[in-house]
Amino acid sequence: MALFNPSREQVRQFFFDAWSKFDQGTTLTGLEKLAIEVIHMHPEYHTVLKEPDKYLEQSYFPEMGQTNPFLHMSLHLSILEQLSVNQPPGIVLFYTQLKHKHQDEHSAQHDLMDCLAETLWKAQRESNTPDAESYLSCMQSKVHL
Questions:
Q1: 48-93, pLDDT tens digit by residue?
Q2: CB 114 within 8 A of CB 79
Q3: How many CB atoms are closer than 10 A to CB 32?
Q4: For residue 17, what are the contacts with CB-CB under 8 A and spacing of at least 6?
Q5: Cβ contacts of residue 121 below 8 Å, gap of 6+?
Q6: With 48 labelled, which of 37, 57, 119, 137 sits at a CA distance of 20 to 30 A?
Q7: How many domains does the chain have?
Q8: Chain-centre distance of CA 56, in angstroms?
Q9: Rounded-to-integer distance, Cα 88 and Cα 3, Å
C-alpha cells in the first residue's frame, strides 16, 4: 500500500485552493472542510492564503523565528484526521483529557502536535518509522504536566 506523500507545493496548493473555494462559497470536500476548520483557528494566515503567487515558493526559517504556516496547518490537519479514526488507539482519550486540562481545543491540539512533530523528527533522524508508543507516551506526559 502506497502512502500519499504530496510535495511541498501540492500541500500549499491544497490550502490555497480550499481557502479560495471557501471564500467563493464552492462545495468543499471532507478534507477541505477540515482544512477550513484549521484555517479559521489561524486568522494570522488568512493573508498568506489569499496570495498564492507570493507564498507558494516562500521559504520559512525556524532558526530565524519564522513559523511555516503550511507545516503548522498540516500538523493540525494530521491531528484532526487521527482523531477522526482514533489512530493511534488512545489519541481521542488523550485529546479529551487535554481539552479538559486547557479548556480549549486549540491548545489541546497544539499539545498533540508537539508530540507528533517530535515523533516524526525522531523517526526521520533515525531513518525509521514513527514509534506509536513514544507518540502515545508523549501525549500522556502532556496530560500530566
A1: 999 999 999 999 988 888 889 999 999 999 999 999 999 999 999 9
A2: no
A3: 19
A4: 32
A5: none
A6: 119
A7: 2
A8: 18
A9: 16
- Residue 94: give the domain boundaries: 86-145
Phi, psi for 102 (deg, rounded to 5): -90, -20
Separation between Cα atoms, residue 94 and residue 142, nearest integer Å: 9
- In this structure, the answer to whether residues 55 and 99 fall within a common structural domain is no
How many CB atoms neighbour CB 23 within 10 A?
A: 12
C-alpha cell at 74: 498540516
> What is the 3-class SS of the chain, one letter each residue?
CCCCCCCHHHHHHHHHHHHHHHHHCCCCCHHHHHHHHHHHHCHHHHHHHCCHHHHCCCCCCHHHCCCCHHHHHHHHHHHHHHHHHCCCCCHHHHHHHHHHHHCCHHHHHHHHHHHHHHHHHHHHHCCCCCCHHHHHHHHHHHHHC
**What is the total residue count of the chain?**
145
Q: Is residue 53 domain-resident?
A: yes
